């Protein structure tokens, strides 16, 4: 049996939402979190979950406005939840009871947590995928509201809200791709793509905080999903939005410098390769250096992975009284981790894809694939050198090798193709 005692606020406190009441509320929330993580994952702790659900229901029902602290506990609870607890019906009823109240809130922190709750409910399949269109409409509404503030990066709550909207949009897109494939991605998520294009073009000021930087790299990855699915349609959407392709590519390439995850870089490389044949000749010439610098490190990494032995796992170093990793708000649920491992294009042959797309692109200039191969192998015309760069071109804990094509004589590119 578990006994929960909530102390009343001091008599001098007139309002339930006072600072003293908030302190007691946070203490109870922390108690529930520590109690939940004291049980091993997937163990039967239904009594604790049921008690926690009743506490959430009591607090939300007692306040006219939703409380972000309680929503964080709710989000934590749904991340920890497994079907073994047998409370799926109760979880669904709780969302149905407060859905309208949460959706109508104009508190940015509450809005952000509401979107994260919806994401976990979708992953838990407590919300049927047939309702994803309704969820998408909510995401579009919240996302569009943040775009109206060009200085959103100066507000932590606005950054959190936009990040939550992007997170839920990315989850909806992955679920859609796994279920339907890429054929109609642009039809279902056209507004998200339009907002994403505007967001990539939007400056973030001189003070680039880490949260905004992570958000911008998420924008790049989301845009790359559309580009891989259908490059021609994606570029048409950019044109219809009245955005200069030259300016957009400049912003897009500048954000690529902050990509670090191998999976994210791989998706970015495939997107660049898919985009090359659809670039206008003048744009391709202007950005060829930047494209090569982004693509070839990942191609080289892919080639190395074909012959390298599997990495040996290093034992984790013991820490003195570490905070429980399950308590971190940055930790994903197991359901989300499983979804994130999809659509990574791990089976893609980057070497062949580079050969095909580069040949297709240069074919626009009247250089066929056979002629391209002869040019590359003929040392009197081209010199292919492998240069090791001691300082990586990206923020990652590995160094990259970059192929550089040094031009000797050709009317196509009178300058050196790579600055190294």
In short:
The chain is 60% helix and 3% strand. It is built from 17 helices and two strands.
Write the layout of secondary structure elements.
Blueprint: H1 19-37, H2 46-62, H3 68-80, H4 88-103, H5 108-123, H6 132-147, H7 156-180, H8 185-188, H9 190-201, H10 210-229, H11 231-240, H12 245-256, H13 262-275, H14 281-307, H15 334-340, H16 350-362, H17 369-377, E1 382-388, E2 401-407
Antiparallel strand pairs: 1-2
Helix pairs in contact: 1-3, 2-3, 2-4, 3-5, 5-6, 5-7, 6-7, 6-9, 7-10, 9-10, 10-11, 10-13, 12-14, 13-14, 13-16
Can you describe this structure?
This protein is mainly alpha-helical and 420 residues long. It contains 17 helices and two strands. It has helices at residues 19-37, 46-62, 68-80, 88-103, 108-123, 132-147, 156-180, 185-188, 190-201, 210-229, 231-240, 245-256, 262-275, 281-307, 334-340, 350-362, 369-377; strands at residues 382-388, 401-407. It has a two-stranded antiparallel sheet with strand order 1-2. Helix 3 (68-80) packs parallel to helix 5 and helix 5 (108-123) runs parallel beside helix 7 (156-180). The longest helix has 27 residues, at 281-307. The model is unreliable at 1-17 and 374-420 (pLDDT under 50).
Annotation field: number of helices: 17
Overall mean pLDDT stands at 79
**Biggest sheet statistics:** 2 strands, antiparallel
Strand order of the largest sheet: 1-2
Which ranges are low-confidence, i.e. pLDDT below 50, for 5 or more consecutive residues? 1-17, 374-420
Helix and strand run: HHHHHHHHHHHHHHHHHEE
Q: Count the E strands.
A: 2
Shape assignment: globular
Question: What percent strand?
Answer: under 5%
User: Termini distance?
Assistant: 69 Å
Instruction: Bin the helical content.
Output: 55-70%
Structural class by sheet pairing and helices: mainly alpha
Rounded to the nearest angstrom, the radius of gyration is: 25 Å
């Amino acid at each position: 049996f578990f006994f929960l005692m909530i102390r009343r606020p001091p008599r001098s406190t007139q309002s339930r939402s006072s600072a003293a009441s908030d302190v007691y509320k946070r203490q109870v929330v922390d108690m529930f979190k520590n109690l939940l993580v004291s049980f091993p994952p997937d163990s039967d702790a239904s009594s604790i979950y049921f008690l926690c659900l009743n506490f959430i229901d009591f607090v939300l029902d007692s306040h006219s406005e939703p409380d972000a602290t309680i929503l964080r506990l709710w989000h934590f609870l749904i991340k920890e939840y497994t079907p073994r607890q047998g409370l799926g019906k109760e979880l669904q009823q709780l969302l149905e009871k407060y859905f309208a109240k949460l959706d109508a809130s104009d508190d940015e922190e509450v809005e952000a947590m509401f979107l994260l709750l919806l994401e976990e409910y979708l992953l838990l399949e407590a919300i049927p995928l047939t309702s994803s269109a309704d969820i998408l409409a909510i995401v579009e509404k919240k996302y569009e509201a943040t775009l109206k503030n060009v200085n959103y990066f100066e507000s932590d709550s606005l950054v959190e809200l936009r990040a939550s909207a992007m997170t839920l949009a990315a989850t909806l897109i992955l679920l859609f791709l796994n279920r339907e494939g890429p054929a109609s991605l642009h039809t279902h998520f056209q507004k998200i793509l339009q907002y994403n294009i505007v967001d990539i073009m939007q400056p973030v000021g001189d003070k680039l905080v880490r949260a905004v930087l992570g958000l911008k790299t998420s924008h790049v990855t989301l845009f790359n999903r559309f580009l891989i699915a259908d490059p021609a349609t994606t570029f048409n959407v950019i044109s219809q939005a009245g955005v200069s392709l030259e300016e957009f590519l400049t912003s897009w390439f500048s954000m690529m410098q902050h990509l670090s995850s191998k999976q994210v870089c791989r998706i970015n490389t495939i997107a660049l390769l898919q985009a090359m044949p659809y670039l206008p000749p003048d744009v391709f010439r202007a950005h060829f250096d930047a494209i090569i610098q982004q693509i070839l490190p990942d191609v080289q990494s892919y080639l190395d992975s074909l012959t390298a032995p599997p990495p040996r796992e290093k034992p984790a170093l013991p820490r003195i009284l570490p905070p429980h990793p399950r308590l971190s708000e940055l930790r994903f649920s197991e359901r989300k981790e499983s979804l994130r491992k999809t659509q990574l294009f791990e089976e893609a042959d980057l070497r062949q894809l580079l050969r095909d797309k580069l040949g297709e692109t240069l074919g626009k200039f009247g250089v066929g694939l056979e002629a391209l191969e002869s040019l590359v192998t003929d040392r009197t015309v081209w010199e292919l050198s492998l240069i090791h760069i001691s300082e990586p071109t990206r923020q990652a804990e590995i160094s990259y090798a970059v192929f550089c094509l040094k031009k000797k004589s050709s009317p196509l590119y009178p300058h050196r193709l790579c600055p190294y």
